Amino acid sequence: MTRWLGLAALVVVMAAGCAGPEKKLGRGMNNATEILRMGELRRTVEQTALFDSPESAYTTGFLRGMNRTLARTGIGLYEIITFPFPSYEPVLTHKFSAKPVYPDTYRPNLIEDQTFAPDTSLGFAGGDVIPFVPGSRFRVFDN
Question: What is the pLDDT of residue 88?
Fold first, then answer.
């Protein structure tokens, strides 16, 4: 009896697929590293300077950005811990985007690396050189 129950449980797990938990874990890891990426902070400072005033960008914008960064990091940790369990939809989407945010003045690109190189025979290609450094805008071969 227990053998059939175990087999049935295995069939249910295999038939359910892993796309939902995979997405939730990936989204959680992305959100949990927000404290290192600082996209929310940079975007909030930029948006505060544009819509409120440039004088309050580095004070109010910074504090607002830190609050949003910590909240997104917390959401990421929650999604990492609960990734095997349904629901696999993003949480708090009325306050936070399901995708990572960046300042409007910055659009991320691929890292300058041989993995993404379109012409490996020459040994170089285009892309961001140091995207992990906040404020870095240096790109090789940007058209």
Answer: 87
